[in-house]
Protein: Anthranilate phosphoribosyltransferase
Organism: Alteripontixanthobacter maritimus
Amino acid sequence: MTELPTADTQLTEAEAEVVFGQILDGEVGDEEIGRFLVDLSQRSETAEEIAGAARALRARLVPIDAPDGAIDVCGTGGDGHHTLNVSTAVSLVVAACGVPVAKHGNRAASSKSGAADTLEALGLDMEAAGRTAEKTLAEIGICFLFAKNHHPAMGRIQPIRQRLGCRTIFNLMGPLSNPARVDRQLIGIARPAYVPIYARAKAQLGTSFTMIVSGDEGLDELSLAGGNEVAEVRGSSFAMRRYDASLVDVPNAPVEAIRGDDAIYNARALKALLHGAPGAYRDAVVFNAAASLIVSGTSTEWDDAADRARAALDIGAAERLLGQWIEMAQ
């Protein structure tokens, strides 16, 4: 078995691609991988390491075709706040607005309910959704790209991540390795101070437009609680911004207002949201959906984007889309 470098050794992008290729190819023992991931997280991964690791994962993925203009909306997870599934709801809202969403995700690694867990509790057959992903994306503008179906090399890594129960570089690699190879993304990360580092990694990989966001309290999405650290990445460069909920004319709310629980609890909350329930969950979804619509290039102003998101909820378009998706994924 290959021995990994010590955590105090900062890797170049090329070196990181080799090291993570060895991890993904089964050339490293489980205990060694766990030690390396924890040590790397504790000393903080560099932009070069994230980009190199993502390249290794990209080289081993099973791709799908996607319509022009498809985007992804996801969070890195691992923020410890155990909120309701905001990015999952946002994906439905944005797709209902006519923007194809190739939702890339997994079951929970360090939270109570990941996107896959909640969608399954809503009635979506995850195995069938995986098999029909390319079809549903092409025909109704949404799909779920279950990581295990498109990243077979991750099969032995997921149990290690679950045993560790904390965020690792794999939380950061996933959003950068979408199997639909989307060129526009809204990515939430759990460390606001880390936004420019992650933005540099994304810039090294290239993008038409990606927004990297983190709530000041360490939420891996745009937060209602206060300010948000944001990097707008275009091409190989990025600019830092500060955004808050006033952009979409919704009130501030503490993270506790969108606290989630297990998959059944989160699914009920999402269903209520799609039925028109008001409150902080809806406001958080509108805020993040507006950002997604701006990232897609189909809206240029926050107020217009927020109005489109609200309309998708108010007229039941997002709810109908979920029903279509469940029906098609058989």
In short: The longest strand covers residues 209-215. The beta strands are 71-75, 101-105, 142-146, 184-188, 209-215, 228-234, 237-243. The two ends are 42 Å apart (CA to CA).
